[in-house]
Specification:
The protein has two domains: 2-64, no CATH class; 98-196. α3 (100-144) packs antiparallel against α4. It has four helices and four strands. The protein has helices at residues 2-17, 66-96, 100-144, 151-196; strands spanning 25-29, 35-38, 50-53, 59-63. By secondary structure, it is of the alpha+beta class.
């Protein structure tokens, strides 16, 4: 209590002789319960309760550690949830497969459907491109002969272009899916190897 009175008196004197200078003084308590004063709070106590005084020795801001504690608790809970989810996945991985070969077989089964879709889209793209080429050739022939390109033909060309663009996007999405499946099973295989201690042959 005496320390606080001395501090307040000192700050008041400083305010009288140097009113233009804004003094920043903090009070904090260390891990041993000892109270300290200074212009800078040590990093290890930055997240704990501290008080700032102005040049007149009055408390201007009290920063509680509540927000920091809440953030730390939230981060800890997230880390705990992530660890629990990883343990769940690890258990499922070990219970589902008895070897890396089984993981490869599961990957191949999952890829069959994706690869079938890719092949189907590629055939549709080929057909759509042929149709578009036909429409464009017809329009080019009409233009060369000085005939007007009918609205229906222009509509067919625009529709064929739109269809072809959509199919190409579908193909890109399917290939992304294929890459995702491969990456997922490769990650499973690496994790399985870590969990079982099986060395890569």
């Amino acid at each position: 209590m005496t320390d606080v009175k001395i501090l307040v008196a000192t700050l008041a004197l400083c305010a009288i002789f140097s009113p233009a200078v804004e003094a920043k003084l903090y009070k904090w308590v260390d891990d041993k319960g000892e109270t300290h004063y200074g212009e800078v709070v040590p990093p290890e106590y930055a997240g704990k309760d501290k008080v700032q005084f102005n040049e007149k020795g009055r408390e201007v801001r009290k920063k509680e550690a509540d927000n920091d504690d809440a953030s730390a608790n939230k981060a800890a809970e997230s880390a705990k949830a992530a660890a629990m989810e990883q343990r769940r996945k690890d258990k499922a991985l070990i219970n589902t497969y008895s070897s890396e070969k089984e993981i490869d077989l599961a990957r191949d089964r999952n890829l069959q459907q994706v690869e079938a879709r890719i092949n189907s889209i590629q055939l549709l793209i080929k057909s759509a491109q042929e149709s578009l080429d036909g429409y464009r050739k017809e329009a080019e022939g009409a233009s060369k002969s000085g005939r007007k390109i009918h609205d229906s033909l222009q509509s067919d060309i625009a529709e064929a272009e739109s269809k072809l663009a959509k199919l190409k996007q579908d193909l890109a999405n399917a290939r992304e899916k294929e890459a995702s499946v491969r990456a997922s099973f490769e990650a499973d295989k690496l994790r399985y190897r870590e969990l079982t201690g099986v060395a890569k042959k």
